[in-house]
Structures are given as structure tokens and as C-alpha cells.
Amino acid sequence: MILSIASGKGGTGKTTLAVSLALALDNTVLLDCDIEEPNVHLFVQPEIRNEQRVEVPAPRFIKERCTGCGKCVEFCQFNALALIKDEVLIFRHLCHNCGGCTIVCPENALPAEMVEIGRLYKARGLGGIDVIWGAILPHQVRGTKLISEVKKNANPSAITIIDCPPGTAHPMVKAVDGSDFCLLVTEPTLFGLNDLKLSVETLRLLDIPCGIVVNRSNLGNIELIEDYARKENIPILMKIPYSREFAEAYSRGTITLAQDSQWVAQARQMLQTITELRSHPQRTQQTQQTKRT
Amino acid sequence: MYKQLTIMSGKGGTGKTTLTASFCRLAQGRIVIVDADVDAANLHILLEHKIEKSEEFIGGAIAYIDPEQCTGCGECFQRCQFDAIRALNGKYIVSERECEGCGVCELVCPVDAVTVKKESVGKLFHSITPYGRFFHAQLYPGGESSGQVVTLLRERAEDAAVAEHKELILIDGPPGIGCAAVASLTGVTKVLVVAEPTVSGWHDMLRAISLADFFRVGICVCVNRADINPELTSQIEQFCRENQYQFLGTIPQDDSVIKAQLKAQSVLDVYPDSPASRAIENIFNAVIQEL
Questions:
Q1: With the CA atoms of B236, B241, B243 and B248 taken in that order, what torsion angle do they form, in degrees rounded to the nearest 10?
Q2: A169 contact residues in B (CB cutoff 8 A)
Q3: B162 min Cα distance to partner chain A (Å)
Q4: B197 contacts in A (CB within 8 Å)?
Q5: Cα-Cα-Cα-Cα dihedral sign, residues A135, A139, A144, A145
Q6: CA A196 → CA A267, B41, B87, distances in Å?
Q7: Deepest in the core among A97, A156, A222, B108, taking most CB within 10 A?
Q8: Where do the domains of chain A lie?
Q9: B56 in contact with A at a CB cutoff of 8 Å?
Q10: Can you tell me the distance from the alpha carbon of B176 to that of B208, in angstroms, rounded to the nearest whole number?
Q11: CA distance A119 to chain B (A)
């Protein structure tokens, strides 16, 4: 089973939940798809067994071959090329590495060469769990390839837990796509509720069943989330109260939830509920706002 | 000429929007405001605003293969870098979730079976607040165009700043270091990084700083919820001193922030004398000096 952990808003506790579930449940694999800011590895004491460069083809400009025809600039959908005097400038942070300019150039002045966009790490972490994450290089913005590489490590015979990027844009969709179930972590605040709504809408478009985990459930106003969940018929599967002690331990790199036997029992119960929800799926309601019609 | 300040963090949930909303109050009348966290916009919740105008944003394109014309040669399948072309009954179709609209399939198709269409990816809003004009957006799920939308919001804000002779464009940035983050910080006067004294906050702050350094933007740093881990807060302060980043101060963990947010206001609006409000005011005064 693939269980993804997402949230619209950042900082709600996705990583805390992902790490804790991976430790509390049996036979788990933990994937961190938040490649812009991967954090799972900071909490699992990973012993890295394999580090791999992930590369994509990128154009390299050869001035001697260029006739200044401008076909590459005209083709590029992402405004990543500009013809200034007799030279093509490549704006790397806008380039999607689609390879179009390489194909369209009649003089072969923009041949493709492989460039690194980030690293893929495979490690053995706390409790002997396999932990895989990707980290994109800070000036590279095209991360979907790296997310795919991380997701290739999903294990069909285990519970694969995926820590997803925040937001509801392409990286989040790429990370949750193909999940059997998604846990949406939120907090009982107006920000939490607003971003929860956006995530639910996204998951409905993808037809992925979901449940809610309310973190810091004792701070703010829990009714905000409960009212919404009831109205939308989405189960609240867990509430995790804020504790100063826990926050301080987290700040030092220790997530203590899975050391609490009561919490572990709750986590196992939640897995049971998810399994039942999957075998008796609720009818998913399509939202009005469909992006692509 | 106006200056531009981007609030960013790397890690989500460190308090960017809380800080931005409070800054809006402190700079009332002198600013234009941008919410560049277009994937999970929240600033509008804390700012009393009236939407004056909205515009559809036509962005990300999607390819379509006409099954009548497709001969199943597979040229598009071979060339697509995004695994967006799938085989189906001897022909090929486009998987919309993967397609980035680059147009390579249209370029290489020998029988012109492919068309690439632009579509609406979300809405841009021109709003008015008691503090100044406010530009924000709502993107439809799964969008590929966050960076382009941020660029457009900033252009709108720059026009407004020029027209109304405002001193500062205040930009509430997105988490992460991807295209929306890049679009939020290129060409700005200063970046204010809101860090959090946790191992993940530290790790993500370093990545956000290296991004701002890459684009040669001046960097200021403050630490939110500093008392959660005083040692790590000192480490961040020392790191800033050693690397010539301006360290502007700390904000304590303070329940009044959440209480104010539940009233859809900034902490400075509701609890101006709370420890968090005092600290935010000091950081605001310091960052204004840096611009």
C-alpha cells in the first residue's frame, strides 16, 4: 500500500507524522518527495548506502555554429532563451529541459549535455527502515524527474509512506499521484483550514481517498476542522496535541511519538481504519472546479 | 524608486505570513503588497481587503494528439522528457498530469497530429486594503505555472508602486526553493529569511540562503519561536555574523499569534503589546534600516 502524507500549508507536521508512522507500523518504507526541502533524513539517523546523481539533458550553446536565426528562442515555451546580438543566452532557472531547442536548431548549436539537478539518497534508518529521499540543487527548479526517481523505490509488498511537498501545485500532485490513500495533516487555524480545503479539492480531482490528521489539535479552534470534515464527509483519523516537550525534542532532531505505546496503538488502529475505508470506498464527489475539461 | 522586500523561509510554517501581515500594518500607506505563496495563499485571510478586479491567468499549455491523425510512429513518445506520452491501442495519448506543455511532441510529429493549447491556470486578484494595494492569486490544483504567476503579480505590484509613488513592495514568499521561490526573490532589494530553531528549520534556512546567494540578493535573518531551542538560535545568530548576513532579532513563542489568526487579523492588530508584537516591531524597524 502507498500511503502519502500531504498538506496544503507547510509546517503542519507532515514529516513528524511520516517518520512516526514509519517507525510505529510494521514493514514500512519511507520516501521523502519534498525535494526542495527534504527533512525526513534529519530525524531517522540514516546510514547512507547509496548516493546517486540525477541528471537531465540541458542545452549547451556553441557560438561558432550559431547563425542567429532565432528559431530556438521562438520555440521555447518557457522564455528560457534570448538572442542578444549574435549570442543565445540560456536562463537555466527557467529551462524545463524539454530538449526542444536542441531539436529545432538547424546548425546543432545547442547540443544537449547531461547536467545534475540533484541527488538521490538511499539509506537504512532508525528501526532498520529503508529511507529514500531526493535533494534538488538550490538553483535547479525542475524537480519532477527527481520526485519520479524517489517514487521508483516504492515497495508494493510493504507499506510505502511518502512525505509530500507542501502546496497543491505540480510537485505535490506528482508526489501523491498513485497513492492508495492520503493523510492530510492540518492544524486548527484559519490557515490550516484554508489550505486543507485546497488539498481536498486536489485529491478529489486525482480520485485519491483521504483522511485528516489534526496536529497541535489543542491550539487554535478544533471546531473549524471538525465542522468542515463533517460537511465534506472526510474522516478525522487522528488528533495530535501540542506539547512543549515534544516541540523541544523535535527541534533537536528527535521525534518521540513512536516511543509512546499508546500512540503506536492509535497508529495501528488508524491503519486498520484506512484499510477498511479502502475496501468500502465512499463515493468520491467531483468538485465543481475541474482544472482540465 | 520603490524598494522590494521578500519574506521567505525554506521550511513552511515558520511564520512568514504572520510577519508579513504585521509589517503591512507597520508600513501602512507606504506599501504595495504581494502574496507570492500562490500554491497555498494565506495572507488574504489576515488582511481586510476588497477585490477590485480579477483576471484569468492563461499559462501552462497541454498537448493533444488527434487519434484520427496519429499513425503510432512513436516519435513523440521517444522525445518527451516528461513521460507524458502513453501508448494506447497502437496509438499515443497525452497524460495531462505529466505534460509540461513544451511543444516538443508537436515539433517532431511527422503528420501534424499534435496541437498544444494554452489554458487558464488560475486567477489573479487586484485588491485594496487599509495598508495599500494587494496583489494575490488562486491557482487551480496541479498547476505548473507558479513561477510565472508570481512574476506577473510582481509586475502588477511594480506598476502600482510607480503609479502611486509607494516606497516598498512587500512580498510574502512561498516555502521551498523551487520556481515560485526563485520568481519571488530575483531582483529584490533584500530577502528576510524567517528561520525556526529546529534541525529542519536550520537545514531549510541554509538551502533558502544558498538560493538567495545564488541570485546575489542581500540576506537578513530572524528567528521565530526562538525559545524552543536557545542553543540553535545562538548557532543561527553566530552563523549569520560569520557569513555577513544581517541578524535582525528573535520572536518568542507566543499564543497571541494563533489567537489573533483565529480572528483573521495579525498579532499586531489584536495584541500590540504582546511579546511577539514587540519583537516583530523591532525586526521591522531593523529591516527598514537595511533597505
A1: 70
A2: 39, 139, 141-144, 146, 180
A3: 26
A4: 251
A5: negative
A6: 21, 12, 35
A7: A97
A8: 2-54+119-279, 61-110
A9: no
A10: 7
A11: 14
Cα of B14 to nearest chain A Cα, Å: 7
- CB contact residues (below 8 A), chain B span 271-290, against chain A: none
- In this prediction, residue A289 carries a pLDDT of 37
Average pLDDT, chain A: 93
Fold topology of A61-110: Alpha-Beta Plaits (3.30.70)
What number of other Cβ atoms are within 10 A of residue A49's Cβ? 11
Best CA proximity match to B174, nearest among B164, B161, B183, B187:
B183
Contact A172 B39 (CB under 8 A): yes
Rounded Cα gap, residues A143 and B64, in angstroms: 24
Q: Which residues pair with A88 in a beta bridge?
A: A83
CATH number for the domain running over B59-120: 3.30.70.20
User: Domain spans of chain B?
Assistant: 3-49+129-290, 59-120
Cα separation, B126 vs A58, whole angstroms: 37
| Grid cell for residue A254 | 528527535
- DSSP per-residue codes, A214-259: EESTTSS-HHHHHHHHHHHT--EEEEE---HHHHHHHHTT---GGG
- pLDDT one digit per residue (tens) for chain B, 291 residues: 899 999 999 999 999 999 999 999 999 999 999 999 999 999 999 999 999 999 999 887 899 999 999 999 999 999 999 989 999 999 999 998 889 899 999 999 999 999 999 888 899 999 999 999 999 999 988 777 788 899 999 999 999 999 999 999 999 999 999 989 999 999 999 999 999 999 999 999 999 999 999 999 999 999 999 999 999 999 999 999 999 999 999 999 999 999 999 999 999 999 999 999 999 999 999 999 999
Chain A CB within 8 Å of residue B89 CB: no
Closest CA to B175 of A15, A34, A182: A34
Nearest CA in chain B to A171: B142
Q: List alpha helices for chain A, DSSP H.
A: 14-24, 71-75, 100-104, 144-151, 170-176, 190-206, 222-232, 244-251, 261-279
Q: Residue A113: is it exposed, middle or buried by C-beta count within 10 angstroms (0-12/13-18/19+)?
A: exposed
Q: Is the pLDDT of residue A288 over 50?
A: no
Name the class of domain A2-54+119-279: alpha beta
Q: Cell triple for residue B130? A: 487599509
